[in-house]
Amino acid sequence: MSEKVQRQTAPGESGILSRIGRGALWTCTLALLGGCGLFDSPPFSRQEVHWADRAILFREVVHHPQALEGQHVILGGKILSITRKGLVSTIVVKEYPLGKELHPDTSKPSLGVFEIVTDEFLPKDRYQPGRKVEVIGTVIRPVWLNTAGGRKTRVPVIRGRHVHASSPPPPPMPMDMMDPGMMDPGMMYPGMMYPGMMPGFF
Length: 202
What we know:
Oligomer: single chain
CATH architecture of the largest domain: Beta Barrel
Order of helices and strands: HHHEEEEE
Number of helices: 3
CATH superfamily of the largest domain: Nucleic acid-binding proteins
Number of domains: 2
């Protein structure tokens, strides 16, 4: 007759294991959500990039916007403000140079401000002031913006063909996942010993 061995759960073990399981699940979730930030792919397809003229940089656009009207460019930066009117959105962007993967490099100096005009749907949880944004589009007639000091400045405008913004940050860890007791060796007990672990190690 085969002998059946059934392990009994020690008092409190199910609750601890449940918390550990939730903690592991949350860690995996954050890893998946943050993976895009660690290994961020280019925001545009190869075909889109070939459509634009990568030789045209922001310094040329800001100094000669009218001469470059109709040219296709790729620019990026940080969102300063966004206005939605009907199906059209206008994004005011503080420019930053693009890195190798076409994402704004905020460690380098900005050369100015530009606007993006687009009828593309822009989710409010993604397109917010402070978020990084990239645009591939066409240079159109510049506009005049009022600065914080009360003076007007001319800024270039890009009619967006494809606009991309950084994803929202991951949600905060639930409070029960932040319980110090989860990492407290004193919470360990013989029923949780692993093979090879020395008795009395904790």
